[in-house]
Design a protein that fits this description.
- It is built from 6 helices and 46 strands.
- By secondary structure, it is mostly beta strands.
- It has 4 domains: about 35 residues; about 80 residues, no CATH class; about 280 residues, Pectate Lyase C-like (3 Solenoid), CATH 2.160.20.110; about 35 residues, no CATH class.
- Strands 11, 12, 15, 19, 23, 27, 28, 32, 33, 37, 38, 42 and 43 form a 13-stranded parallel β-sheet that branches.
Length: about 450
């Protein structure tokens, strides 16, 4: 009788155990179900969202979704609107969004004014808030060059920069990768000189390529923009920039906005008794990122291969040109005050009289992190910040990956891996930016 009772009790315990195990498994599975959120995407007239498309899509929480908007011919992407707090850059046609909730977003497009010749370009000054797209290369053979942008134009002064004091460009200008060649500006007594006088808040210039240009001014001289308070991206300048005063840069004279994915190649010359002369930017009070300078720089004080004087942020950038000046001379940055420099390097030769450094000439109340210079090619064993390495170490992936750089080795200099900010050919090249043209 006891055996029967014990047997029944055993079966009951087994059944109860199985029930509890199954219940626990169900609860565990239910707890592992990922939360899903909807992303609803639409667009205005003039373009479409090609990635991931338009409509409603479901994603797990935390998913990073790439967004790509493409404008139709004659239109230009403006921005993303709606639930945009999780979008990295609402002004970029190619960006991403992190799914932490239900979002509904719209890609906005607008009709753009087409630029076909130098007369069209000159007319931009009549509507400084307009949206413009360049339709072809501009050079000395295109209508309007002799009158507006040649050494004989405007009584020998050449191109008149677009915009005037207190009335800078606030619209958008998309160069679409076309080249503006043979630009000539000779205005040594004028300030804020460049293709554009000034880019003000809300203004955007992108994909503008200025080639074989000569630009001369006094204070605030840049090949593309004299004074930038907006956004400059994916642009470059090759040629000569000369200034007689302060804030002289290959691309931008004084930057109070953002300069990204841009570069300079040529020579920048400032007077021996003035300050803030840089290969890409003369004076930076904003952000310079993912950019480089291959130009040679000469000036008085605060002279740098990339930035003359930095009072903002410089990140993921480099300089390769030679730098010479009197005081506060650096391969990357001449003077660095109340500023940040990170994940950057320089390799150009550096010469000067006082406060001379391979990476930074003079650094005060600032942070310099994970940044390097080549002690062999620069001719400088010291720097007021940064880490000096020999050439072999500067071409070693471990130097940079060990410092936390977003970098990967590629097979040869003609290969790019855009999944990383930096690429390097192991034991053959210095790091280069993955967006750089081959």
């Amino acid at each position: 009788m006891n055996r029967i009772f014990n047997s029944r009790r055993h079966r009951c315990l087994v059944r109860m155990s199985v029930f509890l195990i199954v219940a626990a498994l169900i609860a565990g599975i239910a707890g592992c179900v990922l939360t899903q959120y909807d992303l609803t995407i639409s667009s205005t007239e003039g373009g479409e969202v090609t990635t991931p498309g338009e409509g409603t899509f479901a994603y797990h929480e935390g998913t990073v979704v790439n967004l790509v908007a493409e404008a139709d011919e004659g239109y230009q992407f403006v921005n993303w609107t709606g639930n945009v707090s999780a979008i990295v850059d609402v002004n970029a046609a190619s960006t991403n969004i992190t799914m932490n909730g239900h979002y509904s977003i719209t890609a906005n497009f607008a009709i753009a004014i087409e630029i076909w010749d130098w007369y069209d370009l000159d007319a931009v000054r009549d509507n400084l808030g307009g949206r413009y797209i360049l339709m072809n290369d501009l050079d000395s053979t295109i209508a309007g060059y002799e009158d507006l942008a040649s050494p004989e134009g405007n009584e020998g002064m050449g191109w008149q920069p677009i915009g005037v004091w207190r009335d800078g460009f606030t619209g958008s200008f998309d160069g679409r990768g076309y080249e503006i060649r043979d630009l000539y500006i000779n205005r040594p007594d004028e300030d804020d000189v460049g293709l554009f006088f000034g880019l003000y808040d809300g203004g955007v210039i992108k994909d503008v390529c200025i080639v074989n240009a000569t630009v001369t001014g006094d204070d605030g001289v840049g090949g593309l923009v004299g004074l930038n308070m907006g956004i400059v991206s994916n642009s470059y300048f090759s040629g000569n920039v000369t200034g007689g005063g302060w804030y002289i840069g290959g691309l931008v004279g004084l930057n109070e906005g953002t300069v990204s994915n841009s570069y300079y190649g040529g020579s920048v010359t400032g007077s021996n008794h003035h300050y803030h002369v840089g290969g890409l930017v003369g004076g930076n009070e904003g952000t310079v990122t993912n950019s480089y300078s291959a130009g040679n720089v000469t000036g008085g004080g605060y002279v740098g291969g990339l930035v003359g004087h930095n009072a903002g942020t410089v990140s993921d950038s480099y300089a390769t040109g030679s730098v010479s000046g009197n005081s506060s001379v650096g391969g990357l940055v001449g003077g660095n005050g109340h500023a940040d420099v990170c994940n950057s390097y320089s390799i150009g030769s550096v010469t000067g009289s006082s406060n001379v450094g391979g990476l930074v000439g003079l650094n005060y109340d600032s942070t310099i992190s994970n940044s390097f210079w080549d002690i062999e090619t620069s001719g400088q064993a010291d720097s007021d910040g940064g880490i000096g390495k020999n050439t072999t170490e500067m071409q070693d992936l471990a130097t940079f990956s060990g410092a936390g750089w977003d970098i990967i080795a590629v097979a040869n200099p003609g290969v790019r891996n855009p999944s990383y900010i930096w690429n390097i050919v192991y034991d053959e090249t210095y790091p280069f930016l993955s967006w750089q043209p081959v």
